[in-house]
Amino acid sequence: MIKLLLYTLSLLIFIIFVFAYLNLCRKFSLLSAKYHKTLKYLKALSQCVSSARWGNLQIRIENGPNAITEEISKSLNSFIESVLDRDKMILEYVEKEKENNNIKEDFIAMLTHDLKVPIIAQDNTLDLLLEGKFKELNPEQKDAIRNIKISNLDLRHLVESLLDSHKFEKKGFVPKIQDDINLRKFIDDTISQTNSIASLHNKIIRLYDRCEPDYKISTDIFLLKRVLQNLLLNAISYGINSQYIDITLENNDTQCIISVRDYGLGISKENIDKIFNKYYSAAELYSKASMGLGLYLSNKIIETLGGKIRVSSEENKGAEFSIILPAK
Ligand SMILES: Nc1ncnc2c1ncn2[C@@H]1O[C@H](COP(=O)(O)OP(=O)(O)O)[C@@H](O)[C@H]1O
Ligand SMILES: [Mg+2]
User: Fold this and answer.
1) Which residue's CA is minimally distant from atom 13 of ligand 1?
2) CA atoms of 45 and 50, how far apart (whole Å)
3) 193/187 Cα distance (integer angstroms)
């Protein structure tokens, strides 16, 4: 009887053990499934965050395996959406600003273009006055008219620089290269076009031609003339206390060098690196109407033509600007 009782008891204990073991196994497999789901969710979460961080704001994370991960997903998704909204707002703002800037720039271009016409008309009338076409003027009257003409030419140069700058910002300089340009003839033409301004300032432009005879270049003569005129006008403006401006032409197998030298104010060491910057100008020191666009544009033009501008100067001893172009 006792034996049977013991047997039944041990069977009962065995059954309880088996039952407990099975229950433990079930719980373990449930836990392990939850663990894998959570791990998978964390991986997806990390991918979603790094993807959003690199700019993919379309990405969203699915709800996780439980209430907490569901909450995390909701917060992260709404955070990404708010970043996306801000991104859109910033883009719209930038677009609007661009549009406003374009309108402003077009307005300035229109205005400067319209200003050019009366300036040229005034200049022509001043020439007629100086030539005595209306009535012979006395020396004081001629001096006064010359001064008005100088200011007028400064204004015209300023308006042209503004227009050039607008054109450059819009579509860059597109050179129209012509072959077989006789360099000497091109320089003679440019000097004779600048001589009237030079003589108003009592300046004499001298030419030293050290190029091989009949030297030819391939370039955009309109753009190169703009640069040369800019350098000559600067030499006229800043070549104070000296009568001469020297142009030197040189060439070798690879380069053609056009240098403009004056013997005036020169440029200090600390300013020489700034002179090609947009809007850098020391002109207000000499009460000159200027915007600091001349050298900025000249540099851009020469770069477009495949060359560079070199400058050397010492304060109060003048400056030399050299246009270095590739030989054709
Ligand atoms: N030949 C020169 N001699 C001395 N300084 C010069 C000369 N050319 C240019 N600079 C300096 O470089 C500045 C920038 O020249 P530029 O771009 O032509 O502008 P702007 O003449 O309108 O001031 C001038 O204001 C001046 O300070
Ligand atoms: Mg200038």
Assistant:
1) 281
2) 9
3) 10
pTM as predicted: 0.71
Q: Is residue 25 part of a domain?
A: yes
In the chain, which residues have pLDDT < 50? none
CA of 319 to the centre of ligand 1 (A): 10
Residue 148 counted as domain residue? no
Residue 270 is encoded by which pair of tokens?
Answer: 């600390």
The pLDDT score that the predictor gives to residue 299 is 96
What is the per-residue pLDDT across 116-125, written as a single tens digit (0 to 9) for each? 889 999 999 9
- Shared-domain flag, residues 213 and 320: yes
Contact 236, 201 (CB under 8 A): yes
Ligand 2 centre to CA of 209 (Å) is 25
Residues 184 and 305 in one domain: yes
Q: Which ligand is nearest to the CA of 319?
A: 1
- Please classify residue 275 by burial: count the beta carbons closer than 10 Å to its beta carbon, then call 0-12 exposed, 13-18 middle and 19+ buried: buried
Pocket lined around ligand 1, Cβ cut-off 6 Å:
230, 234-235, 238, 262, 264-267, 275, 280-283, 290-296, 319
Question: What is the CA(69)–ligand 1 centre distance, in A?
Answer: 66
| pLDDT at residue number 286 | 67
Q: Is residue 142 part of a domain?
A: no
* Structural domains counted in the chain: 2
Q: Which of 55, 89, 123 delimits the end of a domain?
A: 89
Sign of the dihedral through C-alpha 257, 258, 262, 263:
positive
Tell me whether strands 244-251 and 204-209 are parallel, antiparallel or unpaired: parallel
pLDDT for position 215: 96
- Say if residue 192 is in the same domain as residue 313: yes
Domain range enclosing 313: 173-326
How far is residue 190's CA from residue 186's CA, in Å, rounded to a whole number?
A: 6
